[in-house]
């Protein structure tokens, strides 16, 4: 007696065992596409302070100033000497459409001494910019 | 008229491997470039002339002494972890809280103090003394 094996059905199943893999990869792809925001990375890594403050970033034109924990200053992703902050801002200002309503976002490392931040802010104010805000990371509860 | 279309070709299965390649590349791109950080902004407004005059009413000075959260309000030293005492002090002092920091205090500590005062119920916290 010859038993007929169902060989014909299993002939072209070469791709079938990768389908669960593709399912997972597609799910991950959709998750990262929907949940993540593609953002331009900064010139230098800073670690802004945590806060319970829940004011979202405004949509207005803004000038980004980075200050690292060592006190190095970057304006619009270019390194700037501390005594040149004011002149650097004044050089950049004409590039913006409406310099009067331009807001400044200062992204400061959490470990920067407040005295350093104060001197940077003083220069920014001296350049005539009024709307200044400090970038913080949102944390659910105060740690 | 009959056209000679040649022998009927058997449909060949499309391999999934190129699809997986492309999907993997897309996945890698989105994994590496997306950020899940939630940024917030803490506004540092310049007090207007009118506000500056009204601030003449009553300013309670809060001095941040070190990075571990020691503060002094009105000559009384306490820790930021003592939330009940802080809330009682905030209730006892209506008006504006002006913040002052000691030398060498980090930005994180300053932000934590502002948070703690807000949680304790203070509505008017002024950073004008620290940040111009």
What does this structure look like?
The complex is a heterodimer of chains A (143) and B (132). Chain A is an alpha/beta fold. Chain A has a domain at 50-138: Nucleotidyltransferase, domain 5 (2-Layer Sandwich). Helices cover 27% and strands 21% of the residues of chain A. Chain A has three helices and seven strands. Chain A has helices at residues 19-35, 85-92, 114-126, and strands at residues 37-38, 50-51, 62-67, 73-75, 78-80, 103-108, 131-138. Chain A has a six-stranded mixed beta sheet, with helices on one face. Chain A is elongated and about 100 Å long. Chain A starts with 18 loop residues before the first helix and ends in a 5-residue tail after the last strand. The model of chain A has no long low-confidence stretch (mean pLDDT 82). With 132 residues, chain B is α/β, with parallel strands linked by helices. Chain B has a domain at 49-126: Nucleotidyltransferase, domain 5 (2-Layer Sandwich). Helix content of chain B is 35%, strand content 22%. Chain B has four helices and seven strands; from the N terminus they run αββαβββαβαβ. Chain B has helices spanning 17-33, 49-54, 83-92, 107-119, and strands spanning 34-35, 39-43, 59-64, 70-73, 76-79, 96-101, 125-126. Chain B has a five-stranded mixed beta sheet with strand order 5-4-3-6-7, covered by helices on one side. Chain B is rod-shaped. The chains are: A alpha/beta (143), B alpha/beta (132). At the A-B interface, helix 1, strand 1, strand 2, helix 3 and strand 7 of A face helix 1, strand 1, strand 2 and helix 4 of B. Strand 1 of chain A pairs antiparallel with strand 1 of chain B.
């Amino acid at each position: 007696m010859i038993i007929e094996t169902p060989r014909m059905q299993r002939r072209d199943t070469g791709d079938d065992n990768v389908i669960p893999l593709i399912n997972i990869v597609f799910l991950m792809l959709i998750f990262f596409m929907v949940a993540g925001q593609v953002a331009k990375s900064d010139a230098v890594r800073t670690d802004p302070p945590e806060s319970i403050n829940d004011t979202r970033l405004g949509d207005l034109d803004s000038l980004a100033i980075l200050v690292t924990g060592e006190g190095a200053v970057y304006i619009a992703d270019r390194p700037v000497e501390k005594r040149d902050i004011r002149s650097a801002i004044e050089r950049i200002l004409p590039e913006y459409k409406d310099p009067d309503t331009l807001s400044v976002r200062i992204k400061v490392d959490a470990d920067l001494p407040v005295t350093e931040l104060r001197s940077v802010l003083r220069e920014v104010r001296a350049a005539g910019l009024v709307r200044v805000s400090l970038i913080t990371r949102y944390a659910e509860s105060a740690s | 008229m009959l056209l000679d279309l040649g022998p009927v070709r058997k449909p060949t299965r499309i391999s999934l491997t190129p699809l997986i390649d492309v999907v993997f590349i897309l996945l890698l791109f989105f994994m590496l470039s997306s950020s899940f950080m939630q940024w917030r902004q803490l506004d540092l407004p310049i007090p207007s002339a009118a506000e500056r005059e009204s601030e003449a009413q009553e300013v309670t000075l809060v001095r941040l002494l070190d990075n571990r959260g020691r503060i002094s309000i009105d000559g009384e030293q306490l820790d930021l972890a003592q939330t009940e005492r802080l809330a009682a002090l905030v209730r006892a002092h209506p008006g504006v809280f002006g913040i002052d920091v000691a030398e060498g205090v980090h930005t994180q500590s300053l932000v934590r103090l502002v948070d703690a005062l807000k949680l304790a119920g203070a509505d008017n916290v002024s950073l004008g003394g620290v940040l111009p």
